[in-house]
User: Which sequence fits this backbone?
């Protein structure tokens, strides 16, 4: 086909239309920080240091969180439940011993979770213990509590990458009520753990919040009303099911980062917790 001047012009104008629509799409998706500031009554020009932390993983969906953090160049902390990567036990308890391990889904998913945790570590995120199981430890006998904390440390040893290692109590049970139940914090101290609290909460564990931008709103509201940032707790897994992620956070986190940047300046955990140093993990790189 011969290209005439008119078809060339038509091609050019179609191309400019395409460029214009691209530009429009960019403008349309750009975050209106002023609108967010007004909505949450944020002080003009103020941005607060914020550190993202994720509890209850590792889950298969943790990879979605890792992809967002990599794209956005943010370093986060993951408090993981040790039994979720105890693959030998999962194989013993959940697999048919007459079948090869490759055929056992629970075991294969556990191996995948271990790989995801290794990726989390290798991409420079901080990893801490969220205990061996997701229990109310302040309601358990002291010896049982110590065994579980110690066991979590052994299982997570290749992944805990700070010195001293970090810990976050499930439900905060033993932290919020540490005056009445001092044995839990004492056990952590004796085992060399440091407890990391969460002054800000996304409340993403509550199904009522798992819609629209309620979870984002929770975090922005807390920061702007207090004029303060800090460590915020999200969830990338669920405690009750061994492999299912909290899909709302893992699928929508990517949309929340840009609005958060209107009022937050993402910082590593060391900005808030100066007591620990990242451990040299080169010995474990092959995990
Ligand atoms: Zn938890």
Assistant:
């Amino acid at each position: 086909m011969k290209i005439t001047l008119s078809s060339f012009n038509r091609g050019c104008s179609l191309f400019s239309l395409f460029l214009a629509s691209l530009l429009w799409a960019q403008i349309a998706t750009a975050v209106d920080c002023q609108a967010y500031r007004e909505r949450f009554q944020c002080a003009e020009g103020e941005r607060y240091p914020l550190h993202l932390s994720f509890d209850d993983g590792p889950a298969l969906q943790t990879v979605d969180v890792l992809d967002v953090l990599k794209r956005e160049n943010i370093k986060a902390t993951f408090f993981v439940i040790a039994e979720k990567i105890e693959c030998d036990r999962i194989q013993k308890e959940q697999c048919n011993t007459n079948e090869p391990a490759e055929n056992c889904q629970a075991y294969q998913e556990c191996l995948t979770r271990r790989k995801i945790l290794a990726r989390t570590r290798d991409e420079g995120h901080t990893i801490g213990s969220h205990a061996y199981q997701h229990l109310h430890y302040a309601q358990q006998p002291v010896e049982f509590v110590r065994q579980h904390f110690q066991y979590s440390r052994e299982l997570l040893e290749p992944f805990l990458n700070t010195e001293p290692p970090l810990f976050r109590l499930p439900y905060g049970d033993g932290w919020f009520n540490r005056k009445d139940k001092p044995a839990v914090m004492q056990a952590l101290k004796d085992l060399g753990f440091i407890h990391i609290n969460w002054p800000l909460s996304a409340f993403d564990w509550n199904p009522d919040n798992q819609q629209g931008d309620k979870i984002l709103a929770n975090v922005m509201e807390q920061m702007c009303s207090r004029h303060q940032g800090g460590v915020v707790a999200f969830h990338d897994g669920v405690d009750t099911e061994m492999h299912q992620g909290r899909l709302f956070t893992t699928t929508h986190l990517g949309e929340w980062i840009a609005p958060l940047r209107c009022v937050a300046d993402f910082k590593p955990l060391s900005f808030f917790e100066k007591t620990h140093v990242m451990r040299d993990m080169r010995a474990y790189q092959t995990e």
